[in-house]
Specification:
Blueprint lengths: L2 E5 L2 E10 L6 E9 L2 H17 L10 H15 L4 H18 L9 H9 L5 H20 L20 H6 L10 H14 L4 H11 L3 H5 L6 E2 L4 E4 L2 E3 L9 E3 L8 E4 L2 H20 L21 H12 L12 H12 L4 H8 L5 H25 L1 H19 L1
Antiparallel strand pairs: 1-2, 2-3, 4-5, 5-8, 6-7
Helix pairs in contact: 2-3, 3-5, 7-8, 8-10, 8-12, 12-14
Length: 403
């Protein structure tokens, strides 16, 4: 039973709050500032009910910064997160730390968090990344009984506002991939005006659907020249774009580890590239660090992703293509070409190495929908003569009967 007492002009209560785990002594929960004895009695009763039911959470002085530091250790050890993923989370959480860093976590209310989200002047996707990272931290706090409610729950996120450019383009899914004719133009330019390994790099991306990180981390040991297959067992990570400071990591998901069949033409390009690379190795023998990479610098280090992106933009300027093209565009282009070739969505997903990706499904459905329209048009054209003969005669007969 709580002890009620008067403190100056207001009332207070003191109640049993368990034993201190270090000293073993009884702990007391005290609170004052109540206008009446009845108010203090009700508050004490509420505390005792929460305490005995296990709902009461001891007020903590732990700050949001301290919580983030603890969560980051947990994120790496318990969730087996890649360094690239942790780095992205840290960058996103910096915005939240700037807002709530030194504030005790129990003082952060839902309205505080909503106000923080509302004033962010960033892209919709980046705000979503910030929110999902913060939500992980707050949820971790609740799981460890540091807070009772997660302030980031049921928050209203800003909706993406379309620009004039967006409205002019419309919602065209075609912006995500190159049409066959566009790819032909691009690869022709790569063949005629590309620099060393450009043609192979972009043919590899377009003909396999590899992620660019998977592509630049390929080694000669991953190619089976006899069976025309390629295996994907690693990806490239290098946030600083320093060619010496790269890391090789396991692929994005379990499904990303895969072996795929590749085109004979691609095998021939690889043969030619290997001979060229052998000459480079010989010329630079004292300095060449041979790690077996297919797409390597003259010193043997794997090409950076930025290197591929820069080469891409150089070639694009020499084409008539007006789309916003990135190395990832070739992955979507591969999806489109496979769909046109009649490959099922399930087979495409397996080849690309993922279980579910919205853009892939959208492209597949778009292409197959257009193919169905085309099939219907072809059928109509095929049957046009027959239709004209039958239905024109039917109409003439009908008109004659009416007269």
């Amino acid at each position: 039973m709580a002890y009620l007492y008067k403190r100056g002009k207001s009332w207070a209560y003191r109640a049993y709050a368990g034993k201190d785990p270090v000293t073993g002594k009884d702990k007391q929960k005290s609170k004052s500032g109540f206008n009446t004895k009845k108010d203090a009695q009700l508050a004490a009763a509420l505390f005792e009910r929460q305490f005995h039911s296990g709902e009461f959470i001891e007020p903590s002085k732990i700050t949001f910064n301290a919580l983030c530091d603890d969560w980051e250790k947990h994120y790496v050890s318990s969730m087996d997160a890649k360094e690239s993923s942790l780095r992205a989370r840290k960058i996103a959480l910096k915005h939240v730390r700037d807002e709530f860093g030194d504030m005790p976590i129990q003082r952060i209310r839902k309205k505080d968090y909503q106000d923080f989200i509302d004033k962010l002047q960033l892209s919709t996707n980046y705000i979503l990344s910030i929110h999902s990272s913060a939500n992980m931290v707050f949820s971790y706090s609740k799981e460890n009984n540091l807070i009772k409610e997660v302030p980031s729950t049921d928050i209203k996120l800003p909706k993406k506002k379309k620009t004039v450019s967006d409205l002019e383009k419309g919602d065209s899914i075609e912006e995500n991939f190159l049409e066959k004719e566009e790819l032909e133009e691009f690869l022709t330019v790569a063949k005629n005006e590309g620099l060393e390994s450009d043609l192979l790099s972009f043919t590899m991306l377009a003909y396999t659907g590899l992620r660019v990180g998977e592509c630049v981390s390929l080694k000669w040991s991953d190619i089976d020249f006899d069976n025309h297959t390629l295996r994907v067992i690693r990806t490239y990570y290098n946030p600083t774009n320093n060619k010496l400071k790269y890391q090789l990591q396991t692929p994005k998901t379990v499904g990303s580890v895969r072996t795929i069949t590749i085109d004979k033409m691609l095998i021939e390009l690889l043969h030619v590239h290997k001979m060229d690379q052998d000459r480079i190795k010989k010329d630079n023998k004292p300095f060449y660090k041979d790690k077996g990479f297919i797409f390597a610098t003259n010193e043997g280090y794997p090409n950076t992703i930025k290197h591929i992106a820069t080469r891409l933009q150089r070639l694009l300027k020499r084409t008539s293509i007006q789309k916003h093209v990135t190395p990832h565009t070739f992955r979507h282009t591969h999806t489109s070409l496979l769909a046109q070739a009649g490959v099922s969505l399930t087979e495409i997903m397996e080849r690309l190495g993922h279980d579910d990706e919205k853009t892939t499904k959208k492209i597949y459905l778009h292409v197959t929908k257009e193919m169905k329209k085309e099939a219907s048009t072809k059928f109509s054209n095929l049957m046009k003569d027959l239709s004209d003969q039958i239905y024109s005669k039917h109409e003439q007969k009908h008109e004659h009967e009416q007269h």
